[in-house]
Amino acid sequence: MENTEERTEEMEKIEVEMNQRMTERVSSIDNATYWYLMQLLDLSVEEAEEKFPWNIEILREVFEDAVAVLNKHGYNVCDPYISTPEAGRQYRCTLSECGCGSCNCQDEMMEKERLISNIEDAVAITGLKIMGGSKDSIIVREGSIDADFEIRVSQLAG
Q1: Cβ neighbour number for residue 40 with a 10 Å cutoff
Q2: Does residue 2 carry a pLDDT above 50?
């Protein structure tokens, strides 16, 4: 069995990135939002470059407001992102977070990683110390009895 330091290093080495389809979707949404705002402001492409320069803060704010309206009316919106909770373990957005029935952007969903991140956050709140882990588990230390425990997450056959 690996020691705690090796497992911690393994856990920290996992760098999650958006895949090409996720990146293309975000870019497409940003471009469409910018085009929509140009139309609202009645600006040509040339005028927009001067009078309304690209500002991702504005684009994201408009997008988030539009998503809120669509959600209010029962529509789910795919907004690809990488999450880095307090515990630091990264994962790509998951179906349980976005509420979509399926995903056109990802081949492999990272539900297990999301669950482990949520467990790590909850464990930290309780005062237990996270000692390490892997993509499938975390090791926690119960300080009052000075004992380590491994928490594993695996998907059950449906």
Answers
A1: 10
A2: no
Q: What is the pTM of this model?
A: 0.63
Angstrom distance (rounded) from CA 120 to CA 146 = 18
Please tell me the predicted confidence (pLDDT) of residue 158.
Answer: 66
The per-residue DSSP string of 111-147 comes to: HHHHHHHHHHHHHHHHTPEEEEE-SSEEEEEETTTTE
- Whole-number Å distance between alpha carbons of 149 and 142: 8
* Contacts with 22 (C-beta within 8 Å, 6 or more apart), sequence order: 80, 92, 105, 106
By DSSP bridging, strand 137-142 and strand 147-152 are antiparallel
Burial of 150 (0-12, 13-18, 19+ CB in 10 A): middle
Report the C-alpha gap between 93 and 100 in whole angstroms. 11
